[in-house]
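Long-time lurker. I teach an intro course on protein structure, and each term I like to show students one example going from raw sequence to a predicted 3D structure in token notation. This year I'd like something fresh instead of my usual example. Would anyone be willing to generate the tokens for the chain below so I can use it in lecture? Attribution to the forum is fine with me.
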Amino acid sequence: MSLRSALLALLSSGPLTGYDVVKQFSTSVGHVWHAPDSQIYPELRKMRGEGLLSSRPVPWGSRGSTKTEYSITPEGERALREWQDTPLSYVRARDPAQLKAAYFEWASPGAAAAQLRAHLEHYRQQRAQALEQIRALEDRTNPTLARRLAANPEDQWERITRFKVFAYEGQVARAEQEIAWAERGLRLLAELGEPDDPGTPEAP
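-- Reply from a regular --
Happy to contribute to a lecture. Here you go:
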């Protein structure tokens, strides 16, 4: 997946200004494909130049100002469908946490445990966020989902919603796997008599 695929998917529900793209991106697809604002605006302009999006000025404020509103074009819809129908090309693993864990013998006393606890906290937060997104999707209180449902016939609503929930369930499963791995690491450190935090004397 690329940033442009995420933007095409977001705009497939209807036109949005660049500001609204950024706002909705951060509360929807941004949970599974992070991108900073500084990448989104240039990519929108590039996609317009390639014919994937069209744009028009729309009124903004009370002083005659305008904003640029983007819409997906037929070419953009073809690109979105082609991306969706093409199998992923998987890359070899590059996991910094596992790389560090493989050489914990070089860590200062207590540093390995501190890193594993930070890993635990990060993925507990990730799990909580994903579960909250699932709740909002199932309750139909997610504004981005509401916009997408409004743009599609009612007989497609359950299908659309369940696919979104399925994606976040993947995040929950991944977070739980990382939590379990870090907990195993902390148990391993205890078995080896490693210090639990920086400053703790090493076991004799």
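Some talking points for your students: The chain has a mean pLDDT of 92. The chain has two domains: 3-85, 96-192.
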